[in-house]
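Worked Example 4.2. Consider the chain below.
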Amino acid sequence: MSDTLRAMASTEKAAPAAPARPTNALDRYFKISERGSTIGTEVRGGLVTFFTMAYIIVLNPIILGGKDGTGASLASPATIAATTALVAGVLTILMGTVANFPLALATGLGINAVVAVSIAALPDMTWADAMGIVVMEGVIILILVLTGFRQAVFNAVPVWLKTAISVGIGLFIAFIGLVDSGFIRSTGVDSPPVQLGPAGSISTWPLLVFVVGLVLMVVLMAKKVRGAILISIVVTTIVAIVVESIAKVGGAFGADGTPNPAGFRLNVPKWPTTIVDTPDFGLLGHFSLFGSFHKIGVVAVVLLVFSLLLADFFDTMGTMVAVGSEAGLLDEKGNPPRTQQILVVDSIAAAAGGAAGISSNTSYIESAAGVGEGARTGLASVVTGIAFLLATFLAPLVKIIPSEAAAPALVVVGYLMVTQVSGIDWKSYEIAVPAFFTIVLMPFTYSITAGIGAGVIFYVILQVVVGKARKLHPLMWLIAAMFVLYFVRGPLSNWLG
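Applying the procedure from the previous section yields the following structure tokens:
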């Protein structure tokens, strides 16, 4: 029985069994038996992670599909999709082989939107200039890792706050799953801001597909079926293909761009006319490192780099803690194994994404879905990476998986991560209040960084109020100050012109 299935039965952790002897070189390198896993489990976990985050191949071209400050487009959707999959594949394999951690990387959602809307669209800015800013941010964050500063900050965060971060991310990814599936939708008005489905009920075929997938996944996991998450994604995709072939509901937008609330949210589950496509990697190297300075000025560039850096810095911290906690890989201080290597690869990913012209790459919380399937080692990341590389050729096949089939995995894994909430002392205000704001602000603001920032600031304030300021780690003062700047960066930017 995997750790995840144990967690569904009880929040109590069973005493770990003695590690098994490695059976071959692959087992020894990835410590598969030592971490209580098997090669088959790692392969399944890696595939689940891929299917859960493969949407980025389709979504990134949409987000980066607008015009830059000169009115030019970045590239064709096919070129952006192929390059997105290529970079994700290479970096995820690097994470698996160097850090031996079940963590996958791809273009960061949120960060790519910032690059497209808040950087590339500035007057006179080009896509190459915007990607140059991303590269600068990645290089700086890599320097912070190599000097030990990033890990020192990570170690300065209290264990209970790391637990709160993990719980908050659990709620966050469950919310992402509910939104991506269309189960929760914006009403477009102030009250209420969201509702169930497009009409306040389960009234569309895609929403029914999601519910069927969610129920199937929960039932299979409760029955302790191996590969429950992967089986559910595959079966639900088949159901979605059948539904589309009969009901012909189409996508979220019609051919003329008219909204279709009853359609599938991202991919329309139709069997493609072709399975293999020749990838175009023409975006590689599409960046200008210093072109932005004479376009928008030094001060604006510094503020933009700082915003991207802070988001990357703490998003990854929260993600690796959450994934490590779900996998049972954290030590007594809440740190995952080979933390330095994880942070180095993630920092390289930020710069590599900019250098490839497809925005900063970062660690994906969807990796927790693979961990929920039993993944415990970097072999799962290697499998995910290989799947991304194959997707550069098999993009038409990847596009048949609708978000309604993959989203249930996020909801289920979100539940599993939230069970850690019992490890927080809710009777202590100086712990409970920062933990509360960390947890609730992640889903409510759709930002891991905002949740961590609020938790850190409240923690420092309350430590001062209760007379424990001298016990604060010096870096916590610096982190809190950085987050204050982060939260007021809009007015600050306007004030500085």
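Residues 1-17 have pLDDT under 50 and may be disordered. The longest strand covers residues 105-107. Compare this with Example 4.1 before moving on.
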